[in-house]
């Protein structure tokens, strides 16, 4: 059942990405427009998704589940970071970053919500927050090779971390926002999947789909991200009795998503090979339509 829902959702996301590609090819979506849409996602849509995920009734069970999701997420990140560090080290920063970080925010959250319901975003939000913190610290060091390039202000004063703080306050205090605010946030959060995939479609339009899929130089890092990382994560979860059940599956879906869109953004900002990063993001996103359902089908048999 999980695999069927996941397959349907990944196909929907693929079609939305193709819409972005078509809009870009027809000149209806420009580079400036896609940049503005990406800013709307980063500064408005994703924070609303995170905050809404924590607007739920406080119970001791949910607190325990939240803490468990954090522990399991840290284990998943340990696998995702260790593998490319061993395979690439400092020699190939784009590949290292690509394998380490998944697209949990833009793809993981909607996939988890589609499979387990909107309340499941409560548990995947912690994964997305840890991902965000690691991208602004370890990720920048990987891409620049310099530890002094970390900006601590940007690490903690960014939209996702601020949204997490607001969400946790609402969760633990039980403070009720006005219904009109909740409804407005719901409409904004609903933009997450279509807007993110349309932006990815624009990135895809910058190169030939055929060239991206046939670029053998990217196969290594893409297969590590889509196949090796999820399989090693499943193997680790199998060894630990507490890494079973729905929360483990939620974390695994987030960990099995393709290369993070931020790979291209950070590569461009930090003077790395931007086009190669875009190719890796697009190739992994296209192939994830096949790999995510297969990986989760295996996990469903082993972890549930």
Overview of the molecule:
The chain is mainly α and 304 residues long. It has one domain: Na+/H+ antiporter like fold (Up-down Bundle). It contains 15 helices and no strands. It has helices spanning 2-25, 31-53, 60-87, 93-100, 104-116, 121-144, 152-156, 159-173, 179-189, 192-205, 209-213, 219-239, 245-255, 262-269, 274-303. The two termini are 12 Å apart.
Biggest β-sheet: count, sense, barrel? none
Give the fraction of residues assigned to helices: over 70%
Shape: globular
Count of extended strands: 0
What is the count of distinct domains?
1
Q: What's the tally of helices? A: 15
* Mean pLDDT across every amino acid position: 88
Oligomer: single chain
Strand content: under 5%
CATH C-level: Mainly Alpha
> What is the helix/strand order?
HHHHHHHHHHHHHHH
Distance between the termini: 12 Å
CATH topology (fold) name: Na+/H+ antiporter like fold
Please outline what is shown here.
The chain has 304 residues and is an all-alpha fold.
Spell out the blueprint of helices and strands:
Elements: H1 2-25, H2 31-53, H3 60-87, H4 93-100, H5 104-116, H6 121-144, H7 152-156, H8 159-173, H9 179-189, H10 192-205, H11 209-213, H12 219-239, H13 245-255, H14 262-269, H15 274-303
